[in-house]
Specification:
Layout (H helix, E strand, L loop, with lengths): L20 H8 L4 H16 L5 H5 L2 H7 L11 H10 L14 H4 L1 H11 L30 E10 L12 H16 L7 E5 L5 H9 L9 H5 L11 E5 L4 E5 L5 E8 L3 H18 L4 E2 L3 E2 L12 E7 L1 H4 L2 H10 L2 E4 L12 E6 L7 H21 L1
Helix pairs in contact: 2-5
Length: 385
């Protein structure tokens, strides 16, 4: 599929009988006829569809024609590698992924407007602020009486410097990364101390326990499958959790690292403090992929900048009786409302997953504060109804 199905590809230039460095390089940066054909067919289908995706909105004929023959220099990723998930799933909300860090620059004519739309006005002239976790002690418990908030979770995504994203990784790279991650995490102390479980050869009982705890990610997300992000499964994938099961790290699911802090109840302060400590500890040992303008880089453009998603599972039955009203209030505070089990799911027993939507153009602290202020307001409204 597209350019980066294997690392070897980029070293082979088509021999078209010409000599000279420039000609060789030119061939290497051009997509092949089969890829072009898939792009043209996929584009025509998307254009004719009633898809509401951001991909359809911003992949105009002009942008498509300008980008369809380009490839990224290091890993040879094509436009097809970026858009194949959205071409296949017309019900995608976004429909685009970055197969490697360079894609954000090479295909910026498409990524930039999508980023601006999703991240509420983060324009291509804007620059993401430097990392700042702020004063973690300013957040308290959102729901001290335990009436509304069932659980609280803050997570961020990180990519390891020097590696491409999922679709371009070789099996050897997956394994090498898993080794680095597992070694790093086994050095964590105190509250973060725990155990790394590789997916390869995982004991069935352990696997079932991790699924029951809602910890384990599963293969088979069709959006990721279509983006070519599940190759060599389960090689190089694993999960780490601390003894109290309040801190976990996913290795090579959608992103190289998903760092997650969570617990029952509404004590956002505790959850955020734990995440901050963990990120700082891991970063001392593993350098993360960072971009001057876009902040921390990951596979999905919805998850750039701070990459922070702070969320609660919350019951607001009165507000939720009028879904439009719930959405309206949430929108006012830049919050995103999802079903109980996250994206593309329904609310079970009136429980919603509500999180900050903006991850870019603001600091980590401000992203979490938007969620804190918004949820406080939702609870206030729910009490008054």
């Amino acid at each position: 599929m597209g350019g980066c199905t294997s690392k070897e590809k980029k070293d082979k230039t088509t021999d078209n009988g010409t000599t000279g460095e420039a000609e060789g390089n030119k061939t290497d940066t051009m997509v092949d006829a089969a890829t072009l054909e898939k792009l043209e067919a996929g584009y025509a289908k998307l254009a004719a569809s009633d898809s509401k995706s951001l991909l359809k909105k911003f992949l105009t004929k002009e942008v498509f024609d300008a980008l369809k023959t380009k490839k990224t220099p290091s890993f040879g990723s094509s436009l097809l590698d970026c858009v194949q998930s959205g071409f296949e799933n017309h019900d995608s909300g976004v429909g685009i992924y970055a197969p490697d860090a360079e894609s954000y620059s090479v295909f910026s004519d498409l990524f930039d407007p999508i980023i601006e739309d999703y991240h509420t006005g983060f324009k291509k002239t804007d620059k993401h602020p430097p990392r700042n976790f702020g004063d973690v002690d300013t957040f308290g418990n959102l729901d001290p009486t335990g009436e509304f908030v069932i659980s609280t979770r803050v997570r961020c995504g990180r990519s390891m410097e020097g590696y491409p994203f999922n679709p371009c990784l070789t099996e050897a790279q997956y394994k090498e990364m898993e080794g680095k991650v597992s070694t790093t995490l086994s050095g964590l102390e105190g509250e973060l101390k725990g155990k790394f479980y590789p997916l390869t050869g995982m004991d069935k009982a352990v696997q079932q326990q991790l699924i029951d705890d809602h910890f384990l990610f599963k293969e088979g997300d069709r959006f990721l499958q279509a983006a070519n992000a599940c190759r060599f499964w389960p090689s190089g994938r694993g999960i780490y959790h601390n003894d109290a099961k309040t801190f976990l790290v996913w290795c090579n699911e959608e992103d190289h690292l998903r760092i997650i802090s969570m617990q029952m109840g509404g004590d956002l302060g505790q959850v955020y403090r734990r995440l901050t400590t963990a990120v700082n500890e891991i970063e001392k040992r593993i350098p993360f992929s960072h971009h001057d303008r876009l902040g921390f880089l990951t596979f999905c453009p919805t998850n750039l900048g701070t990459t922070i998603r702070a969320s609660v599972h919350i019951k607001v039955p009165k507000l939720a009786a009028n879904k439009a009203r719930l959405e309206e209030v949430a929108g006012k505070y830049n919050l995103q409302v999802r079903g109980t089990r996250g994206e593309h799911t329904e609310a079970e027993g009136g429980v919603y997953d509500i999180s900050n939507k903006r991850r870019m153009g603001l600091t980590e602290y401000d992203a979490v504060k938007e969620m804190y202020d918004g949820i406080s307001e939702l609870i206030k409204i729910e009490k008054s109804l």
